[in-house]
Design brief:
192 residues, mainly alpha, 7 helices, elongated
């Protein structure tokens, strides 16, 4: 029991280490997803790329990192320990991914967001035309999409802060869910 308590002291540092690794993987997957989206020609690809590269692969990797974290601290943790460790790991991941994406979009590929938007608008327009939708309705939809993208690109500092606060709340809820699923408490036997 003393050894288990000692390994729990390593929970936060190990969670940070795993968060750095998971954050770098999430960043690379996000950049890969952006390049795949720019090259996408169909609505199906535009729909499936974010689900596969942006959701399914990171979810599987996150589970593996959570199991690794549990193993590093002795193989057992209760709900509180699991949730706090996973929350720290996911919070570090969130920070690395967001900072990396800002750096990527502001300094490396400055027009990536615009290119993705053009791909989405082009694929939507093409799909609507192939379905026989009237040209006027297609133009109206394209104008609506462009206006929505423009509005999203003109966010204020307060909207950015609000978005990050909501993001941290979502990270906590997801960590709580992961903690509930992945907790594994040590069985204690009492001899009389």
């Amino acid at each position: 029991m003393v050894e288990h308590t000692k390994t729990l002291e390593n929970l936060k540092p190990e969670a940070v280490k795993n968060g750095i690794g998971l954050g770098l993987i999430a960043l690379v997957l996000g950049i890969l997803s952006a390049y795949l989206l720019v090259g996408a020609k169909s609505m199906m690809a535009i729909f499936l790329i974010p689900i596969g590269v942006g959701l399914i692969i990171p979810l599987v990797v996150a589970v593996l990192f959570c199991l690794d974290l549990r193993k590093k601290i002795g193989g057992f943790w209760n709900l509180r320990q699991a949730t706090s460790g996973i929350f720290i790991m996911f919070l570090v991941t969130y920070a690395i991914s967001n900072v990396g994406n800002v750096i990527f979009n502001k300094f490396i590929e400055k027009d990536m967001t615009e290119r993705i938007q053009n791909t989405v608008v082009g694929a939507t327009s093409s799909l609507m035309k192939n379905q026989g939708v009237d040209e006027e309705q297609v133009d109206k939809k394209v104008a609506e999409m462009n206006a929505d993208f423009e509005r999203k690109n003109q966010g204020t500092i307060m909207q950015t802060i609000q978005g990050h606060v909501i993001g941290v709340i979502i990270v906590f809820v997801i960590a709580l869910l992961f903690g509930a699923v992945l907790k594994k408490e040590q069985i204690i036997y009492i001899n009389e």
